[in-house]
Fold these 4 entries.
Entry 1:
Amino acid sequence: MVDSYEVQHAPSLHKYVLTFLASSPNLLPFYSLTTAFAFAPTMATTTQDKEIEHQFPFFRVYKDATVKIHRPPVQTIPPSDDPITGLRSKDAIVPSKPPVPVRIFLPRITDPTRKLPVLLYIHGGGFCMDSAFSATYHNLVATIANQANALAVSVDYGLFPARPIPACYEDSWAALQWIASHAESNGPEPWLNNHGDLNRVFVCGDSAGGNITHTVVSRVGKTGLPGVRVVGAVMVHPFFGGTEDDHMWLYMCPENEGLQDRRMKPSVEDLRSLGCEKVLVFAAEKDHLFEVGKKYVEELKKSGWSGSAELVLNLGMNHCFHVFEPNEDEARELLQKIASFIQQQ
């Protein structure tokens, strides 16, 4: 049993793998596992004699540039059709440079003439772990798509160390642009052409994905997204600057701008220009990100942004409890709140 794994920076190998997958989409479910094992996993005994240069909550860095992720590589599952709910899923490739894998979820269609809201989902994992193709996030996004009756696109963005930050932001932006390419119902993905309402687009993410959600939606406000109306953004227990995680983020982003980097600590300008009409933020009381989540909403309301912001406090709960314990009552309540947020006209 592998309890952790080591990789070294391998952007050229990662680019080769993505290019190969672009021509072999049936292999997409194995993408994250391939990335995780870009170099063979090794037991802790192989690194016990190495000298540690940096120690972070999610990984450690040795002097030879080896990065050891503290959690085992994620196990992925293929897309599938649910015979009970009628929800279908499939994988696709966003043809950016490098290509970005996504998983698409389509709820049961009862009225072919009625188009569905579109949700871009951005998974969590500390910018260095997990996948849109993991069982955890497959099931989570499927649940939201079913409850909200929304067409969901879950992006499998590049992870540190194979692809350092800002890859996560650029890949997620590429996925949103790809969604926007279907504005005239003539894009490359039939499900989006036939069933997606691009006047009702939402962006949602948890933890690291919540942070990425902010940056992506802020970019919409600054640069625009022709043919698309981003109605709302959902950030569940989002990471922002102001905690012990700051230096870990800075290490994962070699081209950072220090502790005031606006991707980590949003500026007033970025908040004011947020490119959506409403925002829903969840903050968990026992989460070390509790205060920064609350502060984000406070600063957003003071920024001069014209939209509406709602803060939901998950009292007595831990970070991303809905991801790790999705069948608990509190998790069901959180997911239903997201679904209602998407369904509201």
Entry 2:
Amino acid sequence: MAMRFLPLTDYLQVTRASTTNARTETGVIANIDANQPVFEFDGEGRALGLRIEGPSANLLRHSSDFTNAIWEKSSGVTVQAAAGQAPDGSNSATKIDFADGAANLYQRVDNLASGANHAFAMWMRAVSGTADITLGGVNGPSQHAVTLGEKWQRVGFAEVASATSRYPKISTALSGAGASILVWNAQLEAAPVASSDMISNGIPAARNGDDVMLDLTTGWFAPGAGTLFFDLALPAAWQGIWRVMQLYSTSLNDDHLDLGYDSVANQLRISLRKAGQQVITQSLYGVLVPGARNRVAIAFDDDEIAVATVNGVLKSPGGFALPRNFAHLRIGSYGGASGFLNGYVRALSYWPGRLGDARLMELCSGNAA
């Protein structure tokens, strides 16, 4: 059975009402236009894949202007704007000098959801050598130690907000030693893990989610049996139910095949709907690993849906015929409105038939040719 090998961009349709920021192949963070796919790279220029993120907001104000009065500082801190090249290539990095002792710089943030997860992230580097910095202040007087070198790195933490007003803080509380660092764009989100940079001015900055879809009506997708394989790079944490993919006809409320992940139950789940009726809703007990690459395959035919991971092949009960009218493939969200992947699709492959279990296991283990 031949694999349909196709350039993803030939059939990719991305809807995102806002611009977004991403690291390019040159290592510089650049602005990506609305409704354009985001293919991101790491600091060494290696491809991370197609990024799919949900909507979010940076709750900090003046997130990259640390000279603004909204950033309060102790007497042992001096701040110098435009002190060097920032991760976006501009001369907008800010130099912060901490005197010996527990010097600190912080911003008060109100209207947080007390008891909910919040993620803080910030670009930092030492001016020279190394520097020991402490981050915290969302969950009470929390303290997270970070050691910086002379390369830019995005550091941070995630924790529960202990009150509706909190004080995300940069300090030298743990080391007590003086430090000189460069910083760029601090970010606080109501999320279990930080997402891409949103730069705020006087008000919090927001970003729309990535609605990613492939058109199946151009002849490359065959009705009936098939296999889809996804090579995913997943975030370090997640919440709720997020989606790997949905095949559907005209809307997600009619004929569809849905593959998602329940992060509370920590298991994969499938849904099959046909002719207005729910045919299958099943949890498959397959576990994915946060913060790592995960390979997932879904093979479908009349009377069987099989989902494979590196740990095995999980199957549905039979007694049904597949819909033959799938016209769209959505990946990484539920209709572009919820359940976002918040990670990367590194590869997507399709076969016009149900691959055998042994082949599915080869794909998911990374041993397939």
Entry 3:
Amino acid sequence: MDGVPWWLLLLLPLLDISAATTEPCELDSDDTHCACNFSDPQPDWSSAFQCISAVNVEIRGGGRSLEHFLKRVDIDADPRQYIDMVKALRLRRLTIGAARVPALLLFGSLRVLGYSRLKELTLEDLEVIGTTPPLPGGGPVLGLSALHLRNVSWTIGGAWLVELQRWLKPGLKVLKIAQAHSLDFSCDQVLTFSALTTLDLSDNPGLGKRGLIAALCPHKFPALQDLALRNAGIQTPNDVCSALATAGVQPHRLDLSHNSMLATAKPANPGCVWPSALNALDLSFAGLEQVPKGLPAKLSMLSLSCNRLNREPRPDELPKVGNLSLDGNPFLVSGNSNPRSTVPSGVVPACAHSPLAVGMSGTLALLQGARSFV
């Protein structure tokens, strides 16, 4: 390993594989997907070299610390000497997971990857320790279109987004943050996500109304079209309306499915005005026994599927809606079906009375065939 370029040493511990194999890394037959799982007590890091031709690379560190790699690389070395080699990589999507990673190592790797054609980066089950290094003199280095983070903790706490954003070129379109340890951002330091169209904060059950207001930094998401808040501790749609109004966010599609909704008679803020751009709202798998008050006055699509409605909603309980979905509610199963429903007579939908109907994560929602906006 003495002759290995330093930038490859940086990337080695970040390669991630989910399948249990005899070798740490496995490359598929068409050289598209490569996955590494360095879970052995003495992993063979050199196995990662077979991933050099892959388009999609997953690297999982087996839950170990990667601090020892700092002794084997020169973080201050100029990566420009490897520009041609890095540009030649086919890498487009990279997943890094299951490790304790020094921030210096992580951001040093991002600096190298800035010369690649990487477009999607996923960080999951990571503990990022230490302070972030200074930004290179040339400014932001990484031109991503999508960034996904799941269960990532940072020594720097809530400042992590500000630090990470400094390394990203403008143009990020998709940001997904799940199981976050901190979403209380320093909004005065957060830069505007000028191109971001999709924000997914699903699977943050402790978020709630206050957390959502803290996470939606005012006027930082001018291009946002899709906002997903599945299993995010949301109690009423009106709570989200208030947060959107505070942040000045104008999504076109809003996914509030898989939250345990409260059947409040009156919304806490009855005067809240929903964004005029909003045309689709998903309230499926929310445990609703009645239609919530204070919904937008007009929608193109409203899903109330897989709830606990025992009767068909009256027109005065609903917004003016073009496409209404009520599938999987008890009133349909009991024989009081809406003649316009697509559920065949006598067929019990898979979601009816399911223990997964409340609080299901976005991943399980996809497995159940529920509609997803993101």
Entry 4:
Amino acid sequence: MISPGFHDFNGPLQLCNHANDSNPHNIYAFSPPFVRRGNDNDIPLFRRGFCSVRNYKLSVVCAIPQASIKNHFAPISHLNIDDSKNPSIETALILIRHGESMWNEKNLFTGSVDVPLTRRGVEEAIEAGKRICNIPLDFVYTSALIRSQMTAVLALTQHRCKKTNLCFQVPIIMHDCSKQAEAWSQIYSDEAKKQSFPVIRAWQLNERMYGELQGWDKQEISKRYGKEQVHEWRRSYDIPPPEGESLEMCSQRAVGYFKEHIEPQLQSGKHVMVAAHANSLRCIIMYLEKLTSCEVINLELSTGVPLLYIYKEGSFMKRGSPVGPSEAGVYALTKSLALYRQELDEMSC
């Protein structure tokens, strides 16, 4: 039976053909609700052996009507399923771990607790935006947690775009938790639709759920259980903390969502940014770089530091991570990205 909690929150934007549209290349979006940890009945969905991206998907599809949000955005009219085989397609993927959160600052286990950014986290997000401001974007994905959403939106305030007569596009955060929310957030101006792109929230990109460790000081937990035990919970691949998720369990949902929703966008020629969390991004990077379970547990991601990958011919190539105030001398830009930067500069003259 589907939990009532499915109807309480927004979920990931999914692409589909509208039932009344005869053109198979006109793609529209609808948003299923997602699972929450609202009460004790919801918690087992995150435990080993019971957590399945496939199960979530099937439950969600059965739980909601096949509603379209075609009035929010113009259809994505040039998605071609054969484009993934086109060797000329080259798209950018930006991954950003959220800026410092208030519990990062206090050294507390945060996990699935929804904690906002600190002042330093806000500054990190803005700085990240400056470093990626010349890289094209079509879609932005965040987790369902506010710290990743703040990071994405703050970074986008620095972004430049040459898709419209204006030198920017407006990010629109999707609100589809109810029919009323969907109706009230419709965009009726075709011009506004062209100047907008969706910010899609997905619980599958949430931070790893740390179970009974959430809210505790990390040093205090180390004293209680021992440093070796806490290190095993934090850095092993398949051992979860009490009532929490292992990295392997986090990978099932995060990588599953990436393969099903984000990678097809890259294959179709769209440029994507993902603002998420240390562990959900570790899982995605493990997939992108074909890391082993031993290699991924040693991967460290700094807050507010964007990573650039290029998707081409079915492969992901890492092009650097910034250490300075701009992308110059940091990212190994491809020829197409360099030309895009040049066109932006010419527009601003």
